[in-house]
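Notes continue from the previous slide.

Worked example: a multi-chain complex. Inputs as given:
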Amino acid sequence: MRNESRYLLLITILLAIYYLICGYYLNRLGYMSQEAIFYIEKSKIILDGLGNRLKVMGLTAPILPFYTSFVFSGLSIIPIPAPVIASAIFTAVLFYIMGSMLLARINDSFYLLLLVVIFAVHPGIIYAATSGKSISMVLLFFFLFFFNLLKFYRSNTTFHVSISSICLVILIFCDYKFIWLTLFFIPLVLSITIQSLNLGEQESIFRLFLSFNNPSLRRKLINKTFALYIILFILPLSCVVCYKLLNLTHANDLNYFNESPYASWTVLADKLSFDQLSTSTVYQLPETSVLISARFIIYCPLILVALYLFRDSTYQILTLLTPFAFVEFLHIKYEKVFLAHEYYLMFIVLSLLCIFYKAQTVRNKNALKIFVGLIALIQLYTGYIYLENSSIGEERKFITTFFKREPDARQNENLELASYLNHLPKNTRILIDDAIAFPIVAFTDDVKKLTLPYQTAFLTSIEAPDKYEDYILLATDRNTETGFTQLNNKYVPVIKKANSTLKLRRVFETTDWILYKIGS
Amino acid sequence: MSIPEILVNDGFITQRDREKIDDFSARSGQSFIKIALNYGYISRKNYERSLINAGYTLQPIRELDKNEDVLSKIDLKFADQHVAIPLYMANGRMVTVMADPTNQFFIDFIRFTYDCEPEIIVSSDLDIVWLSNKLLGGDYVKSSVFELLNRDPANSAFTTFSSGQLVFFFVLLGLVAAGLIISFKNTSIIINIIISVFFLVAILFKLFLALVGSRFELHQAVTREDLKEIVEDELPIYTILLPVYKEDKLIKKLIWNLQAIDYPREKLDIKLLIEEDDDKTLNAVRNLSFPAIFEVIVVPFHMPKTKPKACNYGLHFARGKYLTIYDAEDIPDTDQLKKVVAMFNKLPSNFICVQSALNYYNRNENFLTRMFTLEYSYWFDYMLPGLDTLDIPIPLGGTSNHFKLDNLVELGAWDPFNVTEDADLGVRAYIKGYKIAVVNSTTYEEANNEPINWIRQRSRWIKGYMQTYLVHMRNPAALLRKLGLRGFLGFSFFIGATPLTFLVYPFLLAIFISYLVFDLSSIRTLFPDWVLFMSIFNLMVGNILMIYINMMAVFKRRFYELILFSIANPVYWLMHSVAAFKGLYQLIVKPFYWEKTDHGLSKVINPTNVVK
């Protein structure tokens, strides 16, 4: 066992190095996710900025992936962006935890090999590990949440249910949408409680009937169900309330972290997919409700094996079905927003968890191994196909960059503009709105030159740029995100009306941006 | 006719019982009557009936004359074994009070020692115990009070503040005052940050401990199989100390509960420790109408009048290999003693104490009892196992801590000047390199259901924590060396931080409420944005985590109906704060004063102790 653990650690380290190399390779080809760029920009503000950095530090969302990325931003000796290091390490940690759980339960190297293959080759996993996004953290805590729930079902200990609750808190602070997962646990908890009552009757529906018709059992059922709800959900819900209160005290908006483009990169990403779905004439059949679940099953057929393994336990089956209900709900709630690849990947993690948890109980182990192995191979293919045909441009771009070695030119203009800004004299002042210009800020060397919205001087500078600023960066009409900033083409006539002596001279121009030199 | 014969003739004991008593008497050196009355063979009422039927008259003896020379020739333990004591010479005869006037061994002792015939006065055994302890217990009681002080003054709470500590406090106070004068704002911010960080670390540490503790939720330190393997004949003598003061209402319940303990009768050494001036309790014992397994020891008057002093006194007479303490209202699990013996057999020899969990049988009585149950469930089910796992000094609970008697004596027993002598003893044990374990057995107590009584009890506990912290922090460097960093931090967070938290809490709450209600702009200057961020985070997260830990604990105990009461914890902590200020006041004004908790106030009929 000790030897196996040592091997596992060794494989984990090799895997982490492999992910880092892949991340470096992607970075060299110019691939960077919007999320990673957003974290880099915010880290720069915290480390080098001047002004109210606390708001940036406390209210940037999702907060935990941002913090982990921030921790790695100190490792400037490695030529890999900090978010990529964070995602590579968290994916390796996920592998290690899954591997440890596997070794503790199954004494069969086949499954370890399967795990290694999936983590090394599956395009979705590589995407999670190298894109610098929060997917790896989401998967890790999603795994731990369900793993501890399954343990709780078996041991009925407070420890596992409270660890589950803590994992759910972390999960929500890695991706706020997971707050909706709690909705689908409401019927589940009732089912768990009914199952745990000490009754002779085995059939769930009759247990429910018995419990409701006996005053003592009814009281017990209500008390226990309510207690379980509280133990499981009070921590996430109250943490969200606290976080919202902090948003209220520091940004005068309860949902600042979720709705402001200054706090979260998802606001722009969601807006883009909304625009795409609203304006596109293509009929997006795969994105239709109900069919989404089918899409997930095709993406990860192993989940069917997991459901089969738990076929005898009602509430464990219900537990496995909650992610399906969750993604269907997301699709309804966040209408016209594409489901990101992380929601697909969580089914892989969940199915592997269930298989590792239950594989020992199957009588015909060899048949199961062959079946699981074959399906896992199919999943590698579906993983590739789904990413290649993803509705989200960033995911498609990952495939073309990573597998087809086509350089990613999306950030080239931003890099050029940032390079121009870097060459401006040290005491130059440049007015930039990082709501949409965060990639440019992320690529600049010295954020002290920039006047950004987190600073109190920003509003004054907008009112009188000639007094405080030397340059101003405006978004062009062609910039798809132009509506999210005040500093766009509409700004020029407005400011000129207020100050007719203001002279703006174009000094640098790209498709999305125009840099003006201010004179008077 | 001898007393044993009279008792057999009267049918109060059987011939077989008589043989068993004689046999036990020969083995233990105790007299027949001592065993008959203290090992549940006959009740005192019936014994008196037999004596009166036989023509004896029980006389009051407290006001009789005494002669120091006569008393100097007899030892208390001998008098106690025979329930008899010679008092003075009159008309060439030694006036001797005896519970058994036919005790030939003691009569021969009088003849041999004093060279005269005894003039026997028959009296109740309780009166003789009272008188003999009062007259002969002087040295024992002095030893109970001063033994630790003489042997190990550094660990005695006789001195509350050392000179170094006083200097430290006044220098600190001076620095803070100077800081406030020089720069009020910056000093306030620094204090604010220190308090915020301290609160956050303390709460996270408690959450961590609770999680560590909850991890061992299913771990049974002693299993049913372990219990089955116990051979009754090989069980050692077990001493149980029952220190009581004015608990006349509870005596019957207490003794009745102890009868249910699953342990061989002859191997139990139960000592009811009654204060000299506590006639109420003594009379309650006198009025017991059933035979019971316990003996009375009367603790002679000596200040300070504290429970540890009484326990130290009882320790002089303890015969057991192991020893435990129960309070008057305690209902231990019936198999607790056997579990502890099994546990000690499993543990390495450096484990000298085993703590049982405490919980309450009247938890649903009112708000206070519910909150108390929440608190105890969290403390004993999560915190102590957590501390135990991490090898951090365990502040022992007031009762149901089971010791190896030899090691307890070696440690200097309880500190009579410390009002939480149990917590202090736990720390002292760790300092000496001993360990404490936690056993999966519960003693059910009566939760305090009356607010003033609760504050009295809690003020004593908090004062005791302050005393304990001050005693052991006289030389912090030495303590750090002895406990190691982990132990030192654990000790500081548990013993030191607890009173401090409760003292600071109302101020912070007041600032927060003033800020919310009055929107005081001046407060804002003391809370720059980042401090406000941290403070709000602390307030929210701290409260939520503490509430959550309490919820976890009652969830584990399956007290589901209490789970929502955890939310009322901030109010409950305010009560702690009141108690903490009372404790602080007493620490300065009367450090050794023992705030007596009234028991027996609960109207809940306690369930019998059953093995689950």
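Summary box: Chain A has a mean pLDDT of 88. Chain A has two domains: 2-402, 412-519.
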